Amino acid sequence: MSATPDIARKFTYHGPALDTITETYKELLDKCPVGRSEQLGGFVFLTRSEDILAAEQDPETFSVTPSMLLPSFGNETPMIPIDIDPPDHGEYRRILLPLFTPKKIAQLTVGMRETAKRLADQVAAQDVADVSALFARPMPTIIFSRLAGFPESDWPKFDRWVDEVIYERVLDHDRSTAASREVEQYFDALLESRIDNPIDADDLIKYLLGAEVNGRPLSRPELVSYCYLLFLAGLDTTAWAIRSSLWHLAQHPEEQTRLREDPELLPAAVEEWLRTMSPVQAMARTCMRDTEVSGQEIKSGERVVLVFGAGNRDPETFDDPDEIILDRENNRHLSFGGGVHRCLGSNLARQELIVGLEEFLNAVPQFSLADESQPWHGVGPLDLEIGG
Ligand code: HEM
Fold it and tell me: Which of 159, 258, 274, 378 could be bridged to 335 by S-S, CB 3.0 to 4.6 A?
């Protein structure tokens, strides 16, 4: 690989680095679309949309073992199905498909709308509201936990676990790993109680307990792993997406008005917010054989990071990539991935975003940022002035 510019060697996409990520991506795409970073143990990164898609679609060269960059969560069982390569991956993924069909999502929509309306009414009743705590975080927790069969009395613990497992992962690895163990133990106990006391519920847990892989029932560690991954994948990502969409709208009162008058625009707007403020900025792979991407050599055994957030701003794929254009056409972003591991919950997440934001805009009068310095990313507090 040719001499690596400083920006590539220092490149990371965690924590404070996100504050300047748009400028970083622009420079990397321009100067060093395939580069080598010295951060987080060292990794090669791909930023061009086409390169990322090609890598996603070539699992034999780019394996998902593991699919995230170190430090790992320390789980004993790989996260199913995201850490499993083909051909086994297909068998594990197939088990989840019936939970996320358009029909299933349509069935969930009535409850989704009621939940969004109730939460939005609570926001509307305040002068200044933390919409992360009141809306963006509880909505996916309620929707997914009901689908999954996680008891309502346990929901208050979930935000802390998500924060510790995901957001502390780089900053405080020991605490994150301890929280990870707690989450695994919680799901193990929950599964145990559902095995001992079967209930007639149409939910994920019932479904998994009856599922088979390669003609045998799922083992306990496999069951825990499914629950763990869906918990991580379903809650934090959707909360981030709702929060960042509201962050953007708070600074664009004319867009609030436009979407209230023409809610049909919401599906396209949601795609555009997902493209520009993707909750999953990157996923990792391991290179399984020497290869070349955009003229740069990658060696077998190297960690390779597919930077979806950068690919989403690739000027070769998107006109005016840094502009947020609510009715952008042909928005083929990478925020849900693009290969065999493409997000299974994308239909659910999209519907939560569309319905959630529509009800929010219906219930809440014009709103603005209470403090301009609040970041666009993450699931931390987001204080909005309501009626301002
Ligand atoms: C805005 C919200 C979401 C975003 C941005 C998102 C993004 C992603 C991404 C980037 C991947 C990896 C794709 C790859 O490596 O090619 C993924 C995988 C996955 N997501 Fe999502 N996700 C979201 C919501 C959800 C929800 C709500 C669920 C389920 C409740 C879910 C379940 C999954 C599962 C099971 C996988 C693994 C699929 C596999 O390995 O075959 N996601 N998601």
Answer: 274
Ligand 1 pocket, 332 CB below 6 A? no
Give the SS3 label for residue 277.
coil
Model pLDDT, residue 59: 97
**CA-nearest residue, atom 21 of ligand 1:** 343
**Domain assignment present for 123:** yes
Q: Quick one: pLDDT at residue 66?
A: 75
8 A C-beta contact, residue 238 and residue 330:
no
pLDDT at 14 (0 to 100): 81
Nearest Cα to 382, choosing from 362, 368, 366, 363?
A: 368
Q: Which residues of the chain have pLDDT under 50?
A: 1
**CA 386-335-320 angle, 5° bins:** 80
Q: Which residues pair with 135 in a beta bridge?
A: none
Atom of ligand 1 nearest to the CA of 83: 40
pLDDT for res 176: 79
- 305: helix, strand or coil: strand
CB burial of residue 117 (10 Å; 0-12, 13-18, 19+)? middle
- Could you tell me the distance, in angstroms and rounded to a whole number, from the CA of residue 248 to the centre of ligand 1? 23
243 found inside a domain: yes
pLDDT digits (tens, 9 = 90+) for 100-120: 999 999 999 999 999 999 999
Both tokens of 227, joined, read: 């629950």
The protein residue whose alpha carbon is closest to atom 35 in ligand 1 is 344
Tokens of 51: 């390169």
Task: Give residue 72's domain range.
Answer: 6-386
The reported pLDDT for the residue numbered 29 is: 97
Q: Are 112 and 355 in contact (CB under 8 A)?
A: yes
| Dihedrals phi, psi of 216, to nearest 5 degrees | -135, 155
Closest ligand 1 atom number to CA of residue 279:
5
